[in-house]
Amino acid sequence: MDLIEKATVMHYHRHRITEFKHGTVESLGWRGEHSQQARYQALIKVANLNGQSILDVGCGYGDLKAFLDLHFSDFDYLGIDQMQEFIAEARNRYEGIARTTFFQSDFSTAELPLVDIVFASGALGYRCRNKSFYIDMICKLYNSAQVALAFNMLDKRHFPQHDLLVAHDREEILAFCQVLSSRVECIEGYLEDDFTVLVHRDIVNSDLSV
């Protein structure tokens, strides 16, 4: 994404913070808590996360961390987001919680650490003129994941045209992920206009780039 596109995303969220109040799921861009939680339920089907190291890109306020705490234990969590407001609130919420870290940075340009599981919930839903951006980011996130990558996208079949958000062709995304790994799953039906892709790392695969 170019600087104007990134600035547009940040302006969008700051407007929603003003409209819906700081700390709410609506300020993150979700329609409500139900849609956020439905996506999380799909994402955690990727693996047993007990004892794993986890990277959450576009982490917002760290809501996924709280969700994971309800289902798993003994895991390391690292959240990254470019919004200073989100990271400040996340650090405030989880201050003093062991094995939980937040960084303010743009995941698309940052050097990402190697972890077991990478999650991207909503992070690939913003419009970008560079059509290869999404494929490049999937590849980058997969290369950071030693066990699996789980991400969601808006479904082009059902999501209407939007000035900021963008939907994707599910079959095209799955076809690319199957180049990365022979173990790819798609989950749908939890929301009308969303799908989740689970990409498990092939043991024989080395890091790939496009």
Helix/sheet category: alpha/beta
Q: How widely separated are the two ends?
A: 16 Å
**Number of domain modules:** 1
Percent of sequence in beta strands: 15-25%
Give the helix proportion (percent range): 25-40%
CATH topology: Rossmann fold
Would you count the extended β strands for me?
8
Overall morphology: globular
What is the averaged pLDDT score?
Answer: 89
Along the chain, the helix and strand elements come as HHEHEHEEHEEHEE
CATH architecture: 3-Layer(aba) Sandwich
The residue ranges in which pLDDT falls below 50 over 5 or more consecutive positions are none
| Count of helical stretches | 6
Name of the CATH homologous superfamily: Vaccinia Virus protein VP39
CATH level 1 class label: Alpha Beta
The largest sheet, given as strand count, sense and whether it forms a barrel, is: 8 strands, mixed
| Radius of gyration over C-alpha positions, nearest whole angstrom | 16 Å
Describe this entry's structure for a reader.
The chain has 210 residues and is an alpha/beta fold. It has a single domain, classed as Vaccinia Virus protein VP39 (Rossmann fold), CATH 3.40.50. It is built from six helices and eight strands. Strands 1, 2, 3, 4, 5, 6, 7 and 8 form an eight-stranded mixed β-sheet that branches. It is globular. The two termini are 16 Å apart. GO terms for molecular function: methyltransferase activity. It holds the Pfam family Methyltransf_25.
